[in-house]
Design brief:
Strand 1 and strand 2 form a beta hairpin. The chain has 12 helices and 22 strands. It has a 7-stranded mixed beta sheet with strand order 1-2-5-6-7-8-9. Strands 15, 16, 17, 20, 21 and 22 form a 6-stranded parallel beta sheet that branches. Strands 10-11-12-13-14 form a 5-stranded mixed beta sheet. It is 34% helix and 25% strand. It starts with a strand and ends in a 5-residue tail after the last helix. It has 391 residues and is an alpha/beta fold. It folds into 2 domains: 235 residues, Metallo-beta-lactamase, Chain A; 139 residues, Rossmann fold. Bound molecules: MU-OXO-diiron. MU-OXO-diiron binds next to helix 2.
Length: 391
């Protein structure tokens, strides 16, 4: 697409990656993604804010064809989907300096082999005059790497936030017009890469809100003309209090665990607990991650394979441990033929979950009445604990 004007002498540039279906060879991208870059032209200096994934460098360079001079490239974040085209931009504008946090400077030298004399490191709160426009750099570490920062264009109250507040959507909407769709994509994005850092994101959110931005321009997905929409969503997601939601990721090989999951879901629903159930044999892990944003309880369901849990369930346990959701309770249900170490194995994989573990329910073979009574006990314990939560 061609550059698009946001406000006077501030233009969107960048690339829509409609067909990308996986990020980091891990994260599903059902709606593709975009890499947003922004051109800010002051009366004396011109700045490009972030670049694009190196696979899309030609798109950005063609958008820069009518830009004869570039003084700075702001690198908010060293990850290559934003920084990867900086070497191509510097080749076109050899006098331009790369503006970045000190930590980002060293990371860009390591990741992209950019020479040290190309950088202008900036501290938290430092400003850069472009003539009649001034940029303020706000260090916002751990959204989601340690070097990340944002840029605030004070005269226009425009915040360039890079990954912070982003969403993986490729599209022609410059702005978040369909807020329902953007909310879903932004929540998925938060769940997959931001959730492990919720406590520090809380601090960064306060720094950003203190500037009262009128526009938030992230480097993935559409721009927010109504910043309160995404700021309020983040307030909710980083809140320490989960909702009345139980998440049940499970696998069943011969039906025993499936029957146990069905019974537990029925018992929980009858007691007023909302349940999100995921059959890990065919599940979108982004959807699972989104459910973990709100979940108060996680129950993993597993059959026994070679005396341990099913590998797909182990993967789900590792994922939950890495994402550090705010769940308060956890348990394990499942089945075994003659012997199982599944409970001990899963328990050892989730040290980051600060949860009370409710007594597991493991059936020998197909579940019997005694197992169903235990599942009823588990549902009762979960629902009693959830009564203390918001709806
Ligand atoms: Fe969009 Fe962390 O890169």
């Amino acid at each position: 697409m061609k550059p698009r004007t946001i406000i006077d002498r501030v233009r969107w540039m960048g690339a829509e990656d409609w067909d990308r279906r996986l990020f980091d060879s891990l994260i599903p991208l059902p709606d593709g993604t975009s890499y947003n870059s922004y051109l800010v032209q002051g009366s004396e200096q011109t700045v490009l804010i972030d670049t694009v994934d190196p696979t899309q460098a030609e798109v950005l360079l063609s958008q820069l064809e009518d830009v004869p001079r570039l003084d700075y490239v702001v690198a908010h974040h060293a990850e290559q989907d934003h920084s990867g085209s900086i070497p191509r931009v510097l080749a076109k504008y050899p006098r331009a300096k790369v503006v970045a946090s000190p930590k980002c400077v060293t990371m860009l030298q390591d990741l992209l082999l950019i020479p040290p004399d190309k950088f202008l490191p900036v501290e938290d709160g430092q400003t850069l005059s472009l003539g009649d426009k001034t940029l303020e750099f706000i260090h916002t570490p751990w959204v989601h790497w340690p070097e990340t920062m944002c840029t605030f264009l004070g005269q226009d109250k425009l915040l360039f936030s890079c990954d912070f507040f982003g969403s993986h959507i490729a599209g022609t909407d410059l702005y978040a017009e369909d807020e329902g769709r953007v909310y879903e994509a932004a929540k998925r994005y938060y769940a997959e890469i931001m959730m492990p850092f919720a406590p520090v994101i809380r601090q960064n959110l306060a720094k950003v809100k203190a500037r009262s931005p009128r526009i938030i321009a992230p480097s993935h997905g559409p721009i927010y003309k109504r910043p309160e929409f995404i700021l309020e969503a983040y307030e909710d997601w980083i809140s320490g209090t989960p909702r009345n939601v139980a998440v049940i990721p499970f696998i069943s090989m011969h039906g025993s665990t499936q029957v146990m999951v069905d019974r537990l879901v029925t018992d929980l629903a009858a007691r007023g607990v909302a349940v999100h159930q995921f059959n890990l044999a065919d599940t979108d892990i982004g959807k699972l991650a989104m459910s973990l944003v709100d979940a108060a309880t996680i129950v993993l369901g597993t059959p026994t394979v070679h005396a341990g849990a099913h590998p797909q369930v182990l993967y789900a346990a590792l994922l939950a441990n890495a994402l550090r959701p705010k769940a308060k309770w956890a348990s394990i249900i499942g089945s075994f033929g003659w012997h199982s170490k599944a409970v001990e194995q899963i328990s050892g994989l989730i040290p980051n979950l600060k949860v009370e573990v409710l007594a597991p329910v493991m059936a020998k073979g197909f579940p019997r009445q005694e197992n169903f009574l235990e599942l009823e006990r588990l549902a009762r314990e979960i629902s009693e604990r959830h009564r203390t939560l918001r709806p």
